[in-house]
Design a protein that fits this description.
Blueprint lengths: L15 H6 L3 H6 L12 E4 L2 E4 L23 H25 L5 H21 L2 H44 L3 H28 L4 H12 L1
Antiparallel strand pairs: 1-2
Helix pairs in contact: 3-4
């Protein structure tokens, strides 16, 4: 019974988690991760249309079987204005036909004319995509350059401030001779005090506690 059932194949890719599970570290270590698809060589289909890899990104209208309404060398801005005006005029004609003669065969012709005008407008707008991509990239690079310059300027300001603090700290340090003289004065005082105490001990051999006891006895 299972074999008789139709196998449903989805045109969409697997959900992200199921796709990620095929590329775990263990799957990659064992060599069981699916290999990426090979690059397309000849033709491929997208949104129901066939495309060739050797063609340009924006295909000419003739290769799509569409009649060109403007010359090969033209001003895109002017042609877009003309197409916009033609689109408005044909739409008004279509409304007039629907009001006065809804069963007229010209209604289908006007719909085809409107579709052709929309295709030409869409094609002309797509021809601006490379220019838009270049301008977007230029703006991004200009923004990154400005941010890096601002970061470098802030870093330079902090560096200058740190250098100024270090210079002030170096200037506030005492001179080496002053430090040595202070140390010598303190050592001289210690040496003189030590000598005085030794001389007192030598001149009076009595212990200081014995001297105190003698004074107490004399007072009694």
């Amino acid at each position: 019974m299972a074999s008789s059932e139709a196998i449903q194949v989805s045109s969409l890719p697997l959900p992200p988690m199921q796709y990620i599970n095929h590329y775990t570290d263990e799957m990659i270590r064992r060599g069981r991760a699916p290999r990426p698809p090979p690059p397309i060589q000849d033709t491929y289909h997208m949104f129901g249309n066939a495309f060739n890899t050797e063609e340009s990104i924006i295909r000419p209208l003739e290769s799509q079987g569409i009649k060109r309404l403007y010359p090969l060398h033209f001003d895109r801005r002017r042609e877009l204005k003309k197409l916009n005006q033609s689109l408005l005029a044909n739409f008004l004609d279509l409304l007039d036909l629907l009001v006065n003669c809804p069963d007229s065969p010209r209604r289908a012709e006007k719909v085809e004319d409107l579709s052709l005008l929309f295709i030409h407008i869409h094609h002309l707008l797509n021809e601006f995509r490379p220019h838009q991509a270049r301008e977007t990239l230029r703006v991004m690079m200009e923004l990154q350059r400005r941010q890096r310059i601002e970061t470098a300027n802030r870093f330079q300001k902090h560096l200058d401030k740190v250098m100024e603090i270090l210079q002030q700290a170096i200037q506030n340090l005492p001179e080496p001779m002053e430090v040595d003289s202070k140390l010598l004065v303190e050592t001289d005082l210690l040496v003189s005090q030590e000598k005085a105490s030794k001389e007192e001990v030598k001149s009076d051999p009595c212990y200081i506690l014995d001297r105190i006891m003698c004074k107490i006895v004399d007072n009694m």
